[in-house]
Amino acid sequence: MELISGNEAIARGAWEAGATIGAAYPGTPSTEAMEAFAQLPGVYAEWCPNEKVAVEVGLGASAAGRRVLCTMKHVGVNVAADPLFTAAYTGVGGGMVVLAADDPGMHSSQNEQDSRYYAAAARIPMLDPADSSEALAFTKEAFALSERFDTPVFIRSTVRVSHTKCLVETGERIEHEPRAYEKNQPKWVMMPLYAKDRRLDLDDRIADLTAFADSCDLNTVEEKGTAVGIICAGATYQHVVEAAPDASVLKLGMSWPLPARRIRAFAENVERLYVVEEASSYLSDAVRALGVKVGDTPYPLAPYGELSPAAIAAALRGESPACDCSSTGLPPRPPALCPGCPHRLVFRELARMKAIVTGDIGCYTLGALAPLSAMDTCVDMGASISMAHGFEIGLEGREHRPVVAVIGDSTFAHSGITSLLNTVYNCGAGTVCILDNRTTAMTGHQGNPVNGVTLQHRPSRELDVPALVSALGVDDVRTVDPMDMKAVRAALRETTSSECLSVIVFESPCVLLEKHRNAPCEVKGNCRACGSCSLIGCPAISCDPETRVAAIDPALCVGCSQCAQVCPYGCIVSTGGTDVR
Predict the structure, then answer these.
(1) Rounded-to-integer distance, Cα 403 and Cα 386, Å
(2) How far, in Å, CA of 430 to CA of 433, rounded?
């Protein structure tokens, strides 16, 4: 028995099933699954520039006869949808399993999604484990189902399954002999001539899968009486059995296709039937579509965010869930850029010049928060550049503030290149800032094409971002040190006053990569209490609530000198006595 998380269990299950190839793009809460898989013996694993590429790599390896694991978070499924929908038509060679990690409550995401809708729309079966033990077992089963029914298979997790650890009985690896590849154009070439036949073939495969769903042991019934019956799936099951110990439960381990016959039989055996799910109505809508009457809980459950046993129990009693007041009186602790973060001065200057800043996905999104407050939009990977182009078009002919797009190095490789190409192609203007901190920081410092660090540390090469940007057709490309306030200010002033398209590559490693600390800074006794240093939002800086005199916490300060550069009176020096401006 081992104490492992759901992500680790999925990796282990794939390995035990004989998977040899993994492809992914990191994204919380899925990241650790591929990291864990990459450490297992006898496997090849890689970070891809984005999720679409990961699925295409996986599908190619599957066509070559290998068993393949692809992992991504729920918004990554959006990116991968193009090949996934067609992969349902082509089917597989070796088994192919795709982890879709949902994030109810949006702990690390820009929206809530239920990936089961993708399973239904793409017609790809989906398994829904409730804990780490099931995550391992279901992943192994998914590979068998993939080859049996000639289809990719989704494994769905949520943040609680992905990150919660429990005891799991691990097993030995079963070596899987790769299937031989034979040219088969009607199966793999999805031009209309062949796709029409594969569409009919897909219907036959789904009919077989639906029959399997009604007879398999992935869906189980726990009989506790006939008064109340609850249908649920995934992590919600753990909350249901705690909240309603006397209720009968139909736990759906396969959430698409649904076991229609078993659901109807379960409903007929209970007086009141409820469907409990979080951040979605997928399951209740699907059960009602079968002609099954589903009752509303006496008190409605929240249609968003994560559920809890207390909330479910209160709803079944007809009560409003009790408010958790444990944090009453405590000061808020919003997330902040780390002390010494190379993004800080860029956002400070953008705020100072009152630019319209279209942002992107990454830790630099924290530049939207006070006191920097230097971001106007953040939608999805790569949107910063495209939306900046849209702003320029929409504001044409009107006086407006400078429009600046801000994107990270990993996100630029993920989806920003085509966005920039579109701006160049359509003769766009404006300023694009590529914040190159040499890593994919927010998800845990994974490698990416820009820094050239591969998942398994194979020899590689760094992407030359300025050269690529120039090759796309941008004439004004410059590289700037973001730790130098004067250089940052000059570059932004010059590019935003120009009528052409400019790209500034701000190059400086993430402070957590280097783990280097200079002598910490301190405030001289003649601080004017002007507050300039506090406007950069460094966690190491505070001020006296009465005098407003600044103070620097030496335990947090890394001696980056950013505060010294923004202080207009030279009141900040290093503890070594040297002026750090």
Answers:
(1) 12
(2) 10
Inter-residue long-range contacts of 512-516, CB under 8 Å, 24+ positions, other chains counted = 512/338, 512/441, 512/445, 513/437, 513/438, 513/439, 513/445, 516/558
> What SS3 class is residue 2?
strand
Q: Are 287 and 281 in contact (CB under 8 A)?
A: no
User: From the CB of residue 193, how many other CB atoms can be counted at a distance below 10 Å?
Assistant: 10
Terminal Cα distance for the chain, rounded? 56
CB neighbour class for 196 (10 Å; exposed up to 12, middle 13-18, buried from 19): exposed
Type of residue at 250: L
The pTM is what?
Answer: 0.94
In 3D, which of 348, 334, 331, 407 has the Cα closest to residue 560? Answer: 348
Q: What is the 3-state secondary structure (H, E, C) of 544-555?
A: CCCCCCEEECCC
Pairing of strands 248-252, 96-101: unpaired
Residue 354: how many other CB atoms lie within 10 Å: 10
Token pair of 383, please? 């949107």
The continuous run of DSSP H or E covering 541 comes out as: strand 541-543
Amino acid at 108: S
| pLDDT tens digits along 536-572 | 999 999 999 898 999 999 999 999 999 999 999 999 9
- Picking from 372, 404, 399, the residue whose alpha carbon sits closest to that of residue 387 is 404
Q: Retrieve residue 576's tokens.
A: 């070594």
d(CA 192, CA 194): 5
Would you give the distance in Å from CA 66 to the centre of its chain?
A: 26
Residues ≥6 apart with Cβ < 8 Å to 358: 375, 376, 377, 383, 384, 385, 387, 388, 391, 403, 404, 405, 406
Side-chain-side CA neighbours of residue 502 (13 Å): 20
Instruction: Give me the amino acid identity at 292.
Output: V
Tens-place pLDDT, residues 271-296: 999 999 999 999 999 999 999 999 99
Rounded CA separation 200/502 (Å): 51
As a whole number of angstroms, the distance between CA 573 and CA 9 comes to 50
The span from the CA of 107 to the CA of 28, in Å, is 9
**Could you tell me if 8 and 132 are in contact, meaning their C-beta atoms sit under 8 angstroms apart?**
yes
CA dist 511 and 437 (Å) reads 9
Q: How many residues does the chain have?
A: 581
Residue 212 to residue 218: CA distance in whole angstroms: 10
pLDDT tens per residue, range 51-63:
999 999 999 999 9
Buried b (16+ CB within 10 A) or exposed e, 442-478: bbebbbbbbbebbbeeeeeeebebbebbeebebeebe
Q: What contacts 277, CB < 8 A, 6 or more positions away?
A: 232, 233, 236, 283, 284
